UniProtKB/TrEMBL annotation:
This is NAD(P)/FAD-dependent oxidoreductase. It holds the Pfam family FMO-like. Keywords: FAD, Flavoprotein, Monooxygenase, NADP, Oxidoreductase. GO terms for molecular function: oxidoreductase activity. It is an enzyme of class 1 (oxidoreductase). Belongs to the FAD-binding monooxygenase family. InterPro entries: FAD-binding_Monooxygenases (IPR050775), FAD/NAD-bd_sf (IPR036188), Flavin_mOase-like (IPR020946). It comes from Rhodococcus globerulus. Its cofactor is FAD. Its EC number is 1.14.13.-.
Length: 538
């Protein structure tokens, strides 16, 4: 064995969204030299790319923010209950400036490969500029919902009008006035964009394959008094978030749906509907456990749709059926169903009349041609694995992550992969990230990973790598706790079902962020159980 080479830096961080920024900051605080790479021209990650009209977080702003710096959380002013994309982006820009993070980051540069060299004792990343940089550790902060996905529709390239994807929105904005616009997709992004596009476009056609459950957001301005109250309570509030199931504080369930009389039940649903947001899913403790209980909540939403949407055929087509409420991520919207009462909005129900092909003039369904000037794809992401698999990552003996994950992703705790020493993944498959307030998850991941890296340096560990046995046990655990849940009853991106050919594996950890945190803490206390280590050469 040759002594390890001197790397260009200690740690390389790929991505400069919420996770990458905090990882850069924390590693630097511990005295490591760091280099960051970001494909966007500035910081923000998800919030840099998703600039479509209506883009907004569905978690309360005061909670969807960093807790690591008290001055930051006390000084930043959130103006709305649910923060809009521009406000989150300016928050992240502020964080980058406040902690002077930009100078470590190379922007407008995509990492194309990452290679581990055991003999040299380092990772080499290569960028689309052709540059390469070496580091002892590589931290993938590439995001769980960052690889925007275009569907494969016949004739897509023939369309003569404008084409946009919500997850890759032009920074200069898009002009809808006087245009006939088609939106494909009615997940969270479509649901947020549709009402605002409808207000501007000459005509909007919504191409819907699977209707979602859309709960009103009831967004509102956050008054100074309310924000002050939150800030005064931040220490307790943040601790509660860390110990909670989802990284958010919801009003507790009011009992069990199946043990509550129908009139009382509907009153409770009505009250949560009026309050808005994801708390609806938590009205009763059995909604996400029992299909019958879930159906009572689902039927309540359908009754709201039928009450709101004037045209009965459109209302019926908008009613979600055949999968439990919450088994796909709930959509949180503003005036979504009301939008279908507008004269300039048409619903194209693709279950009744599927898309046959895209033509120069628009979208041809089996019911006829929809002439369009613009198509907006709100078709989602190659979730959790897409951004990682887009990089040619090679671990020990040149083994490719893409091959290792050909039958589905396998990780230890969602942060480490056997065969890939000194590589850490933030919000990876097997972590609770996408089923939680992701900022709470991100802070936990970063702190745990940075503690581990610090520990390695202190005890003189050259490489740390998850063992295959620990990884298999974790994958079995993640899969088994999801197996009996209602999550398995929908074709969701949690399962990879939205990408043709993607292996069907339930990717997120559903055990909750509090439990996950405790487990990770115990594993660290147990001398990082499940990792094998190589000591540094003298
Ligand atoms: P989603 O939730 O994956 O939604 C994508 C939508 O696009 C969904 O309605 C899909 O219908 C539809 N889609 C995808 N491919 C097609 C094709 N080929 N034809 C017609 N319709 C299609 O992505 P979002 O961006 O809305 O949200 C992702 C997450 O970001 C969200 O859950 C939040 O956590 C934040 P389908 O349901 O597959 O029938």
């Amino acid at each position: 064995n040759n002594p390890p080479q001197t790397p260009d830096c200690d740690a390389i961080v790929v991505g400069a969204g919420f996770a990458g920024l905090y990882a850069l900051h924390s590693l630097r605080q511990r005295g490591l030299s760091v280099r960051g790479f970001e494909a966007g021209s500035s910081v923000g990650g998800t919030w840099f790319w998703n600039r479509y009209p209506g883009a907004r977080c569905d978690v309360d702003s005061a909670d969807y923010s960093y807790s690591f710096d008290d001055d930051l959380q006390q000084e930043w002013i959130w103006t709305e209950r649910f923060p809009a994309q521009p406000e989150i982006l300016s928050y992240l820009e502020h964080v980058a400036d406040r902690f002077d993070l930009r100078k470590e980051i190379t922007f407008g540069t995509r990492v194309t490969s990452a290679d581990f060299d055991e003999t040299a004792g380092l990772w080499t990343i290569t960028t689309d500029d052709g540059d390469s940089v070496t580091g002892r550790w590589v931290v993938m902060a590439t995001g769980a919902l960052s690889s925007a996905r275009m569907p494969e529709l016949a004739g897509q390239q023939d369309f003569r009008g404008e084409v946009h994807h919500t997850g890759h929105w032009p920074s200069q904005g898009v002009e809808f006035t006087g245009k006939r616009v088609g939106v494909i997709g009615t997940g969270s992004s479509g649901v947020q964009a549709i009402p605002l596009i409808a207000e501007q476009a000459e005509h909007l056609t919504v191409f819907q394959r699977t209707p979602g459950f859309v709960i009103p957001a009831r967004n509102r301005p956050l008054g100074p008094d309310e924000l002050d109250e939150i800030k005064a309570d931040y220490p307790t509030r943040r601790q509660n978030l860390r110990e909670s199931h989802g990284g958010w504080i919801l009003p507790p369930p009011v009992g069990l749906a199946l043990e509550t009389a129908p009139e009382v039940r509907d009153k409770e649903y009505e009250s949560r509907w009026a309050g808005g947001g994801i708390a609806f899913q938590n009205t009763f403790g059995d909604i996400m456990i029992s299909v019958d209980a879930n159906e009572t909540a689902a039927e309540f939403v359908r009754s709201k749709i039928r009450d709101t949407v004037e045209d009965p055929t459109t209302a019926e087509a908008l009613c979600p059926k055949g999968y439990p409420l919450g088994s796909k991520r709930l959509c949180i919207g503003t005036d979504y169903y009301e939008t279908f009462n507008r004269d300039n909005v048409t619903l194209a129900d693709l279950r009744a009349a599927p898309i046959e092909h895209i033509v120069a003039e628009g979208i041809q369904t089996s019911a006829g041609l929809h002439e369009l000037d613009m198509i907006v794809y709100a078709t989602g992401f190659d979730a959790m694995t897409g951004a990682l698999n887009a990089i040619d990552i090679r671990g020990r003996d040149g083994i490719a992550l893409r091959e290792t994950w050909a039958a589905g992703p396998r990780t230890y705790l969602g942060v480490a992969v056997a065969g890939f020493p000194n590589m850490f993944v933030l919000t990876g498959p097997g972590s609770p990230s996408v089923l939680s307030n992701v900022v709470v998850s991100i802070e936990q991941h970063v702190e745990w990973v940075v503690d581990y890296i610090d520990h390695m340096r202190r005890v003189g560990t050259q490489f740390a790598e998850a063992t295959h046995a620990a990884q298999e046990q974790w994958v079995d655990h993640v899969t088994s706790i999801a197996a009996d849940s209602l999550y398995m009853q929908a074709d969701s991106w949690y399962l990879g079902a939205n990408v043709p050919g993607k292996p069907r594996i339930f990717m997120p950890y559903i055990g909750g962020v509090g439990n996950y945190r405790n487990l990770c803490t115990q594993i660290a206390a147990d001398n990082y159980r499940g990792f094998t280590t190589t000591p540094e050469l003298a």
